[in-house]
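Memo to structure team: turn this sequence into structure tokens by end of day. - J.P.
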Amino acid sequence: MEVNIESIRDIQKYYVQIIETGAVILILFILRMIARRAIINFTLKAERYERRINLMFKHLNLTTMFIFIFCMFLIWGVDLRNIGIVFSSVFAVIGIAFFAQWSILSNVTSGIVMFFTFPYKIGDYIKIHDKEFPSEGYIEDIKTFHTILHTVNDEIITYPNSLMLQKGVSIIGRKDIPEVTDLPDKNIESLPHD
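Reply from structure team:
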């Protein structure tokens, strides 16, 4: 078996980039594991549901992937001016595409904020103080873009997360909750709209 000297020299030329790539992978893996552990500990302390944990894990994985791609651009010598042009072009297209739906990004951000700082959780009975469309019901689920309420009249209401943070919301005490028949357990049954 004959070893090609040129291929060894090519590998040696990129030796520093290969080591830096390995270091970035190791560091991101460790940071991702620490963040996952922090999310799990927070969830156990705050009594959040498994669906919300999985949603936060998806956001964490997406963020880790973007950081990894950005680091690979820097390590392997992509010119920062070219990255700036690419990102500005991509954000211009996204900005134009979402111009009519700008609230999509605020709903995603609100969903993440609601996971970590929300005073109420799935299963609580709440009342949303909105002059035009007051709503009340059990929080059935909190998704990335909206919160699902189940009313006492067996209606399903989807309410945008960004509006949940903008409107006044009251948690109704157990003694003041109207009688509801057969509210499904979200940890056992699948929801009718899933």
